[in-house]
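Forgive a beginner's question, but might I ask you for the amino acids of a protein and the tokens describing how it folds?
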Amino acid sequence: MIDRIVQDIRGALDNNLYFAALNCALTLPDICGKAEYPLERSSKRRYIDWYDKEIGFYEKSPRHNEAEEMPYLSGQVIYNLRCAMLHSGEPNVNGDGVYQKTDIDKFSLVIQKAQPFDIYGDSSGIMDWGGKHIRSYRMNVRRICLIICAVAEAYYRENKEKFHFEYEIIDWDEVTSTLPPLDMEAVFKELANPELGKEKL
């Protein structure tokens, strides 16, 4: 199932369907978190723990040992984004008090067409302006989708025994590909026949 979801996300990105790709990608830590922590009852905790272990740790700025850590895409940030996007359709990482507040004051999404070698960048910053201390993060949708897809796909391949998917997907186009084509003109002509359905006396 992970492979199919990743395939759909990449297809959405290929067609510049940024929010379809992002919304779908933000569900992958849910799926992988449940596989990694099956006894954890909190889906939030599973999500954040899996993401931080597999992705978030590597998203930290090299300056993370300084007095003030640079903003980065932590598990809490991505979880908040997931909840805001899926439940209210907005890219909000602070959840208006519903979810745990993050340390990002200004969050922006960047949409960008595919580039050679799939190289995309995010940026984070800290500044004092107008008497306010502002921590900002600018996230490239294509970048985070590709990262989550690659990590979830690799995690799934290495841990298939942890996943217990019970489902059936029927590809109707594939199932019917060997059937002869329907002559729709003949079908409609027959349906329009006034004698159709009349009992013969």
About this structure: Residues 141-158 form the longest helix (18 residues). The chain is about 45% helix and 10% strand. The first strand starts at residue 106 and ends at 110.
